[in-house]
Amino acid sequence: MKPFKKSKLINLSDQTVMVLGASHGSGRQVVFEMLGLPRENRPKLLILVDNVGLEEFENNQKFLTVQVECHHIDLGSHTECRDMIRNCTNIDIVIYNGGVARKKLFEEMNYEQFMLTMEVNFSSNVCIAKEVLNYHNCVHMVFIGSTLSYLSTAMASEYCASKAALRAFVESLQIELENSHRGINISMVCPHFTSLENGNSKQLQKISTAVLKCMHYPELKTIMVGAQANMLYFLEVLIGSGNVAKL
C-alpha cells in the first residue's frame, strides 16, 4: 500500500460527516484534521455531537470554512440519540468516538455506574448505528475501539466489557454488510489504552490519521494504533488472551 498522505488522498467535499464525542480526545482531533484538509476537500457539513464542550466550534463558526451543526445530547439516552439521528439531514459518514471510563475497582462502583458506561460506550453506538442504517444512506461507519477489547486489566472492568461488546458487534456487522448490497463500509480503530485518558497530542494524531486512513481505504477493517497495540493484538491472535495475561 502506498504511503498515506491525507491532504492529497482524502476528499470529503460532497460528504456529511457526523462525529460523536467531538469535544474531546480523538473525536476532537479528527474534527481538526478534517478542518485542516485543503478547502476543496473538506466535508460539506460537519455534525458534531457531545453532551458538553462544543462551544469552541459554535462560537467560532464564522472562522470555519465548513458548515457545522452541533448537537448537545446525552449519549447514554437512547431517546435523545434516536431523535437526533431521525431529524438530521442525510449522513454519509459516522465516526463513533463517544466513551467514558471510571478507573475504579468493580467493588467500588455501583451497578448504575457500571451500566452507564455500558450505555455510553456500547448501547448508544448500537442505537445510533441502527437508526443510521434505517434512516440514512450512509457509506461508512468508523468505530473507535480499544486494545482493552482484546485484553483486560484492573480498574477497568466496565470499560473492558463495553469495548469487548463493541468489537464483537462491529465484527458481526462487518460480516452482515459484506453480504448485503448496501455498499456500507464498517471499520474499527483500536488504540492502546488511549481511550482511558485524554491522550497526548502524538497519540491523538495517530488515532485521527488511522480514522482518515479507514475512510480512504475501506478494505481496512481494523487498524491497531501504536506498536504496543499491534504487539498485544498479535499475541492475542497467536496464543489466546488467557495465556497473554500470564506473560
Structural summary, described in words:
With 247 residues, this protein is α/β, with parallel strands linked by helices. The chain has one domain (6-239): NAD(P)-binding Rossmann-like Domain (Rossmann fold), CATH 3.40.50.720. Helices cover 44% and strands 15% of the residues. The chain is built from nine helices and seven strands. A seven-stranded parallel β-sheet has the order 3-2-1-4-5-6-7, sandwiched between helices. The chain is globular. 39% of the residues are buried. Residues 242-247 have low confidence and may be disordered.
Number of strands: 7
Biggest sheet, strands in spatial order? Answer: 3-2-1-4-5-6-7
The multimeric state of the shown protein is: single chain
Radius of gyration: 17 Å
Number of domains: 1
Helix content: 40-55%
Mean of residue pLDDT? 86
| Count, helices | 9
What percentage of the residues does DSSP assign to strands (E)?
5-15%
Key terms:
single chain; 247 residues; alpha/beta; Rossmann fold; 7-stranded parallel beta sheet; globular; disordered C terminus
Secondary structure elements and pairings:
Layout: H1 6-9, E1 16-20, H2 25-35, E2 45-50, H3 55-58, E3 67-72, H4 78-87, E4 93-96, H5 111-135, E5 140-144, H6 157-178, E6 185-191, H7 201-216, E7 222-225, H8 227-239, H9 241-244
Parallel strand pairs: 1-2, 1-4, 2-3, 4-5, 5-6, 6-7
Short précis:
This protein is α/β, with parallel strands linked by helices. The chain contains 9 helices and 7 strands.
